[in-house]
Design a protein that fits this description.
Elements: H1 3-16, E1 17-20, H2 23-34, E2 39-40, E3 45-46, H3 53-56, E4 59-63, E5 70-72, H4 83-92
Antiparallel strand pairs: 1-4, 2-3, 4-5
Bound molecules: iron/sulfur cluster.
């Protein structure tokens, strides 16, 4: 990363962040973004919204880099468990809502304790 990228990131933090979230929220956001395919790993910017990751994960509200407005800081793809907020702004921007999240797989039983009603292989107790 060049010094220009560093300077842009610092400026974004100063200009963009109005209020901060707590450290646990910022950490959660950072982990989600780090695993996201939409993160430009060279510049550490989100390819969806253009925000710099290090500023964005801390912001509670921010000035949008793409729109002339303040926003509740959110993941534009709803990956921060904030799909409703993302869809709010998508509706304002005339975009279709994000699809509902995929259903989770049913948990696999891992208990090795036999059920009290189960019978042994020999049919006995
Ligand atoms: S804000 Fe959302 S879309 Fe952008 S990098 Fe983070 S998780 Fe990915």
């Amino acid at each position: 990363m060049s010094w220009i990228d560093d300077a842009k990131r610092v400026a974004a933090g100063i200009l963009m962040v109005r209020e901060k979230v707590d450290a646990a929220t910022a950490d959660f956001r950072g982990r989600v973004c780090t695993a996201c395919s939409r993160l430009d790993r060279k510049t550490l910017r989100c390819s969806e919204c253009g925000c710099y990751l290090k500023a964005k994960v801390w912001a509670k509200v921010n000035r949008s880099p793409a729109r002339p407005r303040g926003e509740v800081t959110h993941c534009p793809l709803g990956k921060w468990r904030d799909r409703d907020i993302a869809n709010h702004y998508r509706a304002i921007d005339g975009k279709p809502p994000l699809p509902p999240p995929a259903p989770r797989a049913a948990p696999v039983a891992t208990s090795t304790v036999p059920s009290p009603t189960a019978k042994g292989a020999d049919g006995g107790s």
